[in-house]
Structure prediction request, 151 residues.
Amino acid sequence: MVVGADFWGEAVPAWVGAIGSIAASAVATIAFLRDIRTRKGLNVVATAANERDTPSRNAAVIASARDVELLNLARSSMFRNRSDEDVTVVGISTSTEGTEFRAEQPLPHRLGPGEVLSIRVHRSIDAPSIAELHVRWYGPDEEVHTTNFFA
Prediction:
């Protein structure tokens, strides 16, 4: 220490300022990366919406007797059978790079009325924050349907 230097008046505030600058830089970097992920996710949604020439399959499914929906949670989603009949989920997939969806039960999986199938979402660090999920399922008529969701 230099003779005559005021430790509490000069050295401590300098260290506090340096640590605060480093913390602010870290927070700004994290916010920047999240912004990039969000923009990628919005591009996925916009691209998928613009590529569809026909109305979304979701509208037809929700209006029919075989009503299904997807409930989004933080790191998982639940595919729910809202109809009065059994449905069987035969596959899940995505077209979004860096994102993987995995069913927590082996497929094909039969869902009774009101039952859910949990689907875990795994994203890489550079993956978009919004991904397109394709769920293939069939009802009692044995016709395979593909319903698209954004999760």
User: Anything to note?
Assistant: Residues 7-51 form the longest helix (45 residues).
